[in-house]
Amino acid sequence: MIGKFQISERAATRLAGLSRSAYRRPLNSETNADPDAALRQWLRTYAAENPRHGYRRAFHEARAQGWAVNHKKVQRLWREEGLRVPVRRRRKRRGSSTADAPAATAPNVVWAVDFQFDADEQGRPIKIATVVDEHTRECLGGLVERSITGEALKDHLDTLAVERGAPQVIRCDNGPELISQALADWAGQKVGLHYIPPGAPWRNGYVESFNSRIRDECLNINSFYSLLHARVVISDWKYDYNHHRRHSSLGYQPPAAYAAACRHTREDQPPQLT
């Protein structure tokens, strides 16, 4: 109609009942099977040469090399080609236990060690070392710092051991401070180290229970304006926990009162090495 009657495209498509976009669309037989095949191949080559680059960097490189394409199309083709950059997962480290943890049948048999984290009003970190006697449920440790290294933890445990006597076994997770050489050197052959399996906090249940209490009753309801303020508030809470809070598993006695009246004794023998 356009050629024979010399009418416009708009009039011809209206008379034929055909949309202008359908008229202009090329036939499948006249197009390539995949119009983006060349770009897909370029993206695969780019990803092979730059395995840690994502689609955003690939988009800017493609534009720099003359490809007329936007970032949405590059992202779609990148995903369809399975070129997602693999996430490097941090390998979980595991400490080497030197002893099996016995049943905490008396004071100073098993100490459980863990850390809690919080922040002050300026967003600066606060790290809290928690040491719990599994038999008496007493909170022994009181270390509150911006950062606690293996050396600092070793010195703190040394102070507690001088005051109360060394435990038979220390139970802990696989944190970097706890699997450090400093702690291993301090323990030596006198104190056994028992590391729970990675990803199994319930295996250190006593200290996890304590952590939930200090989090709920102290850290979540106080705002610390300085490290000194945090030390004072946390120290006061721990004193109240040891001397006034009645513990159901101790016959509703405070841990300090139970420890003072406790007549259980342990057999002072080296822990069984594993």
Explain this structure to me?
The structure is a single chain. The chain is α/β, with parallel strands linked by helices. The protein has eleven helices and five strands. It has helices at residues 2-5, 9-16, 20-24, 37-49, 55-64, 71-80, 150-164, 181-187, 205-217, 227-243, 255-261, and strands at residues 110-119, 125-133, 144-145, 169-172, 192-195. A five-stranded mixed beta sheet has the order 3-2-1-4-5. A hairpin with a 5-residue loop joins β1 (110-119) and β2 (125-133).
Write the layout of secondary structure elements.
Layout: H1 2-5, H2 9-16, H3 20-24, H4 37-49, H5 55-64, H6 71-80, E1 110-119, E2 125-133, E3 144-145, H7 150-164, E4 169-172, H8 181-187, E5 192-195, H9 205-217, H10 227-243, H11 255-261
Parallel strand pairs: 1-4, 4-5
Antiparallel strand pairs: 1-2, 2-3
Helix pairs in contact: 5-6, 7-8
Radius of gyration: 34 Å
Contiguous helical run count? 11
Total strands: the figure is 5
- Overall pLDDT metric: 86
Give me some keywords for this one:
274 residues; 5-stranded mixed sheet
Brief rundown of the structure:
The protein is of the alpha/beta class and 274 residues long. Helices cover 40% and strands 11% of the residues. The protein contains 11 helices and 5 strands.
